[in-house]
Amino acid sequence: xxxxxxxxxxxxxxxxxxxxxxxxxxxxxxxxxxxxxxxxxxxxxxxxxxxxxxxxxxxxxxxxxxxxxxxxxxxxxxxxxxxxxxxxxxxxxxxxxxxxxxxxxxxxxxxxxxxxxxxxxxxxxxxxxxxxxxxxxxxxxxxxxxxxxxxxxxxxxxxxxxxxxxxxxxxxxxxxxxxxxxxxxxxxxxxxxxxxxxxxxxxxxxxxxxxxxxxxxxxxxxxxxxxxxxxxxxxxxxxxxxxxxxxxxxxxxxxxxxxxxxxxxxxxxxxxxxxxxxxxxxxxxxxxxxxxxxxxxxxxxxxxxxxxxxxxxxxxxxxxxxxxxxxxxxxxxxxxxxxxxxxxxxxxxxxxxxxxxxxxxxxxxxxxxxxxxxxxxxxxxxxxxxxxxxxxxxxxxxxxxxxxxxxxxxxxxxxxxxxxxxxxxxxxxxxxxxxxxxxxxxxxxxxxxxxxxxxxxxxxxxxxxxxxxxxxxxxxxxxxxxxxxxxxxxxxxxxxxxxxxxxxxxxxxxxxxxxxxxxxxxxxxxxxxxxxxxxxxxxxxxxxxxxxxxxxxxxxxxxxxxxxxxxxxxxxxxxxxxxxxxxxxxxxxxxxxxxxxxxxxxxxxxxxxxxxxxxxxxxxxxxxxxxxxxxxxxxxxxxxxxxxxxxxxxxxxxxxxxxxxxxxxxxxxxxxxxxxxxxxxxxxxxxxxxxxxxxxxxxxxxxxxxxxxxxxxxxxxxxxxxxxxxxxxxxxxxxxxxxxxxxxxxxxxxxxxxxxxxxxxxxxxxxxxxxxxxxxxxxxxxxxxxxxxxxxxxxxxxxxxxxxxxxxxxxxxxxxxxxxxxxxxxxxxxxxxxxxxxxxxxxxxxxxxxxxxxxxxxxxxxxxxxxxxxxxxxxxxxxxxxxxxxxxxxxxxxxxxxxxxxxxxxxxxxxxxxxxxxxxx
Length: 921
Hints:
Layout lengths: L10 E5 L1 E3 L9 E3 L4 H17 L9 H12 L3 E5 L4 E5 L5 H15 L3 H16 L2 E3 L16 H15 L14 E2 L5 E2 L5 E2 L10 E10 L9 E10 L9 E4 L8 E6 L6 E2 L1 H11 L28 E4 L15 H14 L9 E4 L23 H7 L4 E8 L2 H15 L13 E3 L4 E7 L12 H12 L7 E8 L11 H9 L3 H10 L2 E6 L18 H29 L6 H4 L10 E9 L17 E10 L7 E6 L7 E2 H10 L17 H20 L6 E6 H4 L39 E6 L2 H4 L2 E7 L5 E4 L5 E5 L6 E9 L2 H4 L26 E9 L6 H13 L12 H11 L4 H4 L27
Parallel strand pairs: 17-19, 17-20, 20-21, 22-26, 26-27
Antiparallel strand pairs: 1-28, 2-11, 3-5, 3-6, 4-5, 7-8, 8-10, 9-10, 10-11, 12-13, 12-15, 13-14, 16-30, 18-19, 22-23, 23-24, 24-25, 27-32, 28-29, 30-31, 31-32
Helix pairs in contact: 1-4, 2-3, 2-6, 3-4, 3-6, 9-13, 10-12, 12-15
């Protein structure tokens, strides 16, 4: 394994991220057909548009072409538009005959009929006559685009996958594991599936281990890098909701991957991939490379207890009974060892992250993190900082168990006094009169399920709360409903009807229209049974632990509701300031910027909407009001409110209105999208307003999510870090947020936050310098690290905060996979937890910015949760801005679902959820 440099650092992070060099791409051949191919390609696209649907801007499915092309060639290939023409790129020579057959059969499947056959044959003939020539390496994308679609990056990922596919992975028992390379660039352990025990119906579920290669966020180092991650994908037992189908033959060099389309309940294989593969499989010279896909998605193609030639990948929304998730840390350590020891091109090419001294970011109470609710004596100061006079907390309950549990939690946290009876319908003081609590029995079912609209619920709720509200009170309600998100429904229609009549969302919006925030209490799950399903009595000790665990979970969730009530009102305690430890607490505004493009739902059988998708844009600003023992102020902004407000009024204004912000009135420039233009303008207006609308003028630090914001501001991309804006920039606001402001009014810096492990790399521990000056490898670390040059002499304002999952930190019971891989385990029911990380890249916008201090502050604001006792995934300002969106009553109607992007579901393991990248803004 690689060893760190002989530096003065106490620790160096170990990370599954590897830098690449241009020579790693190897030979790249370009076949560029004659000029006539351009007209023919346009004619094919027009013919495809007429066949698929008139008036829609659609393109032929080139991914299907690349899938069968790579299978035929046995290596990487790509059909792309470049330099005012089309060309075929490949990593090895492809015969003219193969080029002709693949393209003609694919075109025939795309546009059936005589016109499609004619165009396809002409294009195929031009491509067959094209002479090979060296490919020209293009410049990386710069203006608001990530380098993920850049073909040298795609080929670099393919080259590393080829090296990993050639390795054998040792097992404690049994034959070694090999991963097969798929045409989509992923690796799959074909033949090494992980089975669970048969369920009551005798069905055996299987997990397919996979390795994915990602494009890393290189940050200020500016060097293209790759990441390695591993996931376990549930294999489907029916075709419902299948996202991807893998087809492999024993002697096949590549596994052919084909996507599915159609509604989730009636999937079908991609037609061009099926038709082209079946035609090519009939050719003797290609029958080994391109297996024929089945014509139809028949359920009998998937065996219940034995694996056949077809592997169907199920979406993440499908449950995995009897199966855990993830590989565990041992597998990632073996990956690290294999690449360092047996992949010479990538060995010792890890970026150097050294520990930042003097900053504690522990996962428990032993260090600077503050846990527990806001202490009783500090609540008045927190309410003062939030500009709240009296907080009215109505408890709208339905079941006695919930009422008893909420009463006990209020008595423990807010101290209403001994002998508190919590009389029904009587507002009683707590926290010295700063909070008033009133229990109201929802006898009329105002919060209950049914077809009643939010307007009708608003009228009833207004009548219930009218006797208790005053001009100087802020209302924050605790509500009870009995919605079960895991409830099973016999049909999609039944589920949609139940969700439409779920009482939580219309009542939440009704309360928002009454200027009231709300939190919904968790109902008690069914009691722990006394007997097993077979009728045998449970062991008493086992049952006692289950009962205690159930009650502890209910008590914890109820206590957290009270914390969220105060947080929703904008009240914070000293925990944020105290977490800074020895770091200076500067009088800055910390502003989180959250932008999300909405999903456009498609009705099966109808054409897609041509209207641009709306967006949500929210911002929160927070600052310390005094020293480290004083609370913080929180303000918020949304386009619906149109100005900065205290946190609670801004949230209720957003939740009371439609979440979508229409972008059709904006005008985009160059290749900018309407969503990017709208988001940049909204954020710029909000930053201009901070000078006059926030409580005090002070310098500001911005926090943005890199995955969603790089499409909006070109200056956030890796290629633009440290660069000046280009002379042809259409608008200053599209470079960085706040860039259009006068130089003296710009933010100090913008912090790009990335939490996607596909862009960071999986942490595997650290190298630690011992007292005698030697280095030893550690399995875990929770330190803050900073990116340096290869010799360790210069640091960049680029930070890595490694997280140890809470379950892992709890003890040996949660460390399944620490010393074994899932391949070697006899129990497949446990989750193989591994470590995660968050990356902070500081981009200075002012000459006076202390970027190292800003990066450390971002780590502290991530490590110290604002309400919970565990680390957040993003800094608190960004966390709060995102929560304004995600807690909207109808957020689920506009969010991307896992079934909309099913390939995002391949990783829901290892202590975090790896989501698909957000839609391009």
